[in-house]
Structures are given as structure tokens and as C-alpha cells.
Design a protein that fits this description.
Strand order of the largest sheet: 5-4-3-6-7-12
Number of domains: 2
Number of helices: 12
Oligomer: single chain
Number of strands: 13
CATH topology of the largest domain: Rossmann fold
CATH architecture of the largest domain: 3-Layer(aba) Sandwich
Distance between the termini: 82 Å
Helix content: 40-55%
CATH class of the largest domain: Alpha Beta
């Protein structure tokens, strides 16, 4: 396993495209300037020692040297010892509503993005719990099974959009059933589901499904996204907002938070209901409830010993940069004398002319 001790230094690699563009621009400007002096073939004869390819090789050496220098400064480390570490925590599955109504902007920037931001902050506060992700609309899909890798959870979380599920609706029951299958059926404890939705359930089996899950030891918490007053659902085309969703009569559809069903779901699941706002989504309250649960001991394989490898990368970077400094922009003398393409240098032309005149005098 490889990790970077100072990963913030890797942001300096963002300058690489700018260096490439600057080099391309400078070479193009040089070509234009030389073209103003006259014919390119004549210019090459006048300046036989100027190399056309060496500047490119010098740039490649500098480019690679800079890249390895930044990587070296970030201190790459290699894991050399894998051990099983015992941790205590619970299994948490977050069921996130991705129906079109989650685009409503009564929570800023919208309900879905607000929920994703809150989940990301929640992950920063967890340490030993295992997390899974379920997305649901008219159907439910397991986005990520239970894992201790919070980085992977954040990566999958960032990719969640309302378009990833073609079947629209808000089927809370389907999400609970899928979560139940994702847990260990033999365990009757350590399991909780956090449902984040606006509560516009288009099915009627949510309460019964949650009661069945509660019998299996699963605690269900609910977080309501939106406002009871309602908000229109924006529509987009090519990334630009084009208006708001309308019904068949041409009236703008308002999506409202259904607090009643979410409160009933939480009560049936033995959990709590929290209504999100623009200042607080409510996951802290849910985390406090999760913290009161009985913990399970997990055995996880982790790297416990890392060795620095920056010295090798920095050494190679310095070698490349030194090489770049030693390479001249001019042609090597032996290469110029080789004269593969039959061009006659001015010196040789002069000596040849002198030789011809001498021959004529002798004759």
C-alpha cells in the first residue's frame, strides 16, 4: 500500500499543463520570429550549430524532474507490515433519496447536495463504524457495501446524482428491504439505517417494512429534507436550468416535506426523526443516538508500519534536473560533422572553394 505523508504538496502538479502550454507558445513565437528573417533553409545554413530537437529534450527532462520533485516532497510511503486491528463500532447504512424532488432548492444549494455535504461531515466524525450506501427513488440500489474505508465512501458519495436511477418515485420500503439484506442476518444488534429523504413516499409499505426490520434488530432513523410549505423542482438541459417541473395542466409542481410519514417511520424503527435546515441537517443528533448503541468488535487488516521512500524519488528528480542543466541547446560537434543529410557547412564550402581555385592555378 502506498500513501503520501504530505499529500497537499501534490496540488503543485496542477502547474504541469501550464508549463506545457507555455513551452508550446514560446516555441511557436520563436518559429514566427525566425520566419521574419527569411527562408528557413537559409537560416539553418547560417546557424548550423543551433539544434531543433534539443530544446524539446531539455523540456521533457525538466518536466519529468519537476514531477518527481513534487512527488518526492510529498513523501511517498510504502506499507510494510499488515496486522489485524480490533475495533468496536456499529454497522450503519445510509439510505439516500435521489428522486427528482431532491433537486428542490428550499435547502441550499438543493436537498440532495445539502444531504451529501452533511454525510461527508459525518464521515469525518466516525472512526470505527462500518458504513454502507444505498440510493433509492422508485427502486433501491446498493451503491457501496459496508466498509471501514471512509475515503471510498466519499468517492462514491460524490458521484451520486438524481439521474443514476431511471425509475422515479420515493420507495422507502425498497431501501429498507435492501438494507436488511446487506446486514448479517445472524446478528440481532449493531445495525442501524439512516434514511435521508423528503418523505414523498409513493408506496404504502414503508411502515410495515420498517417494523419487520426492527424485529431483525435494525434501528431506523429518518432525516427530513425540505420544507412543509413546498418548493418547485428545477429542470435542466445541458447543465443549465430551463424552468420548473409542471403537471399535465401546466401548473408548477411543488414538492413538500412529508414529516408525518417520516415521524411514523422513525417511531416504527425505534429511532429518531430530525428535520434538516439550512444550518443543520441533523446528523449530529442521529450520531448521538448511534453512540448509545451496543458496539461490535471488528477485526480489520490494516498497515501499521510505513517506510519513507522520498529519498529515491528526490534523487531521481535531482538527477533529471542536473541532466537538463548539462544539456546544451547547440548541436554536438561530432553530430554536425556527420552531416547525414548532405548539407555543406559554410566552413566546408569555403575550404572547397579554396581547393578549387588552387587546382585551377596548378593546372
Amino acid at each position: 500500500m502506498i500513501r503520501f505523508q504530505h499529500s497537499e504538496y501534490l496540488y503543485a502538479l496542477a502547474i504541469l499543463p501550464l508549463l506545457m502550454a507555455l513551452f508550446w507558445w514560446s516555441r511557436r513565437q520563436r518559429t514566427k520570429a525566425l520566419a521574419g528573417f527569411g527562408d528557413s533553409a537559409l537560416i539553418k545554413l547560417l546557424f548550423p550549430d543551433v539544434s531543433e530537437t534539443k530544446p524539446f529534450w531539455k523540456f521533457i527532462l525538466f518536466f519529468c524532474g519537476y514531477t518527481f520533485l513534487i512527488v518526492g516532497l510529498s513523501n511517498p510511503q510504502i506499507g510494510t507490515k499488515l496486522e489485524e486491528v480490533k475495533r468496536e463500532g456499529v454497522n450503519i447504512i445510509i439510505a439516500l433519496d435521489v428522486s427528482n424532488s431532491m433537486r428542490a432548492e428550499d435547502l441550499k444549494p438543493n436537498r440532495l447536495e445539502r444531504a451529501k455535504q452533511a454525510i461527508g461531515r459525518m464521515l469525518d466524525k466516525l472512526s470505527n463504524d462500518r458504513i454502507g450506501l444505498i440510493v433509492f427513488a422508485g427502486e433501491a440500489y446498493l451503491q457501496l457495501p459496508l466498509t471501514n474505508d471512509y475515503g471510498a465512501v466519499k468517492m462514491f458519495l460524490s458521484a451520486i446524482e438524481t439521474s443514476i436511477i431511471p425509475t422515479q418515485g420515493t420507495n422507502i420500503g425498497a431501501a429498507i428491504k435492501l438494507a436488511e439484506k446487506s446486514f448479517n442476518a445472524e446478528e440481532k444488534r449493531y445495525k442501524t439505517v439512516v434514511v435521508i429523504t423528503d418523505g414523498e413516499d409513493h408506496e404504502n409499505d414503508a411502515i410495515k417494512t420498517i417494523k419487520d426490520a426492527r424485529d431483525e434488530g435494525i434501528i431506523v432513523h429518518t432525516i427530513g429534507m425540505g420544507s412543509p410549505e413546498g418548493s418547485p423542482i428545477p429542470t435542466y438541459a445541458m447543465g443549465m436550468q430551463t424552468g420548473y417541473r409542471k403537471d399535465r395542466s401546466g401548473n408548477v409542481i411543488l414538492t413538500k416535506l412529508n414529516e408525518k410519514i417520516l415521524q411514523e417511520c422513525a417511531a416504527a424503527g425505534g429511532g429518531v426523526y430530525v428535520r434538516a435546515s439550512n444550518t443543520e441537517v441533523g446528523l449530529n443528533i442521529v450520531l448521538d443516538e448511534i453512540g448509545k448503541m451496543e458496539k461490535k468488535e471488528f477485526g480489520t487488516k490494516v498497515f501499521t508500519n510505513f517506510e519513507d521512500r522520498f529519498q529515491y524519488v528526490l534523487g531521481f528528480a535531482l538527477l533529471l534536473l542536473l541532466w537538463e542543466m548539462l544539456v546544451s541547446d547547440r548541436r554536438n560537434e561530432w553530430w554536425r560533422k556527420l552531416n547525414l543529410f548532405g548539407h555543406i557547412s559554410p566552413k566546408r564550402q569555403k575550404s572547397s572553394s579554396s581547393g578549387t581555385v588552387a587546382e585551377k592555378e596548378i593546372a
